[in-house]
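Anyone opening a protein record will find just a pair of labelled lines. The record below illustrates this layout.
***
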Amino acid sequence: ALLQSILFTAAGTLIQDKVLYKMAASQFELGHLEAMESTVAQLRRVRPNSPLNDNALLLLATADSVSDKPDRGIARLSPLLDQSTDVGVVCQALWQRASLYEQNAQVEQAVQDYERFLTASDSPQRLIHARLRLMDLHYRLARFEQSEIYANQLLGQPNLDPESEQEAIYLRALALNKLERREPALEAIDTLIRKHPTTPYLHGAHYYRGLLLILFEKSDEAVKSLLVAARGESLDEPLRTNALRLAAMHLREKNDRPV
């Protein structure tokens, strides 16, 4: 009753907009998504020119992501991106639509939005994250040169946070390996292990280190890394199995050599 009284008293004002928007945001936080959508619809109906309507639309798109309805979120945001001239709104909409495209397995479209975000945003942390996503998505699209370019951009930044640095070094090593640039790939992996001995990429790094060392005919070192990889629960089971198989094969070869 109190809320309805406030809305009645403030009808047609920015106060009404703010009350309705905050109500919708609270309903989202509580997981009352249908009620939130009704509140946003009320805001847009009674105040079609409200400066908060764009923010309400962004809130709806966030709810679409939570509800695993990326198509609907993308459809909400696309007209907003075509029409809005507010840089802050555009950046947030690009960020959300890129994430929704990823959620919807539309990798190419996600790349386009993240790259557009790079030209629009001035948020240092968001720009780092956008480059991390682009590095990963280009790798998944088998564009290994582009993946390495974004990794190098990240690693060239001063004061890059440790988590982002580890991800960039690791994926740069994988891209270099795909490009058959084996020596710099091994150097990157060794740098990661040396600088970040507890990195979450440790077992993956040792797996690819073992493979590279086999190519360089350094079997003893390769076996050590492959055995570390085989013990790593964070590594996918097929890779752990392959690491153990390769290590066992090279140990048998070593034991079969004439003394």
User: Anything to note?
Assistant: The CA atoms of residues 57 and 98 lie 16 Å apart.
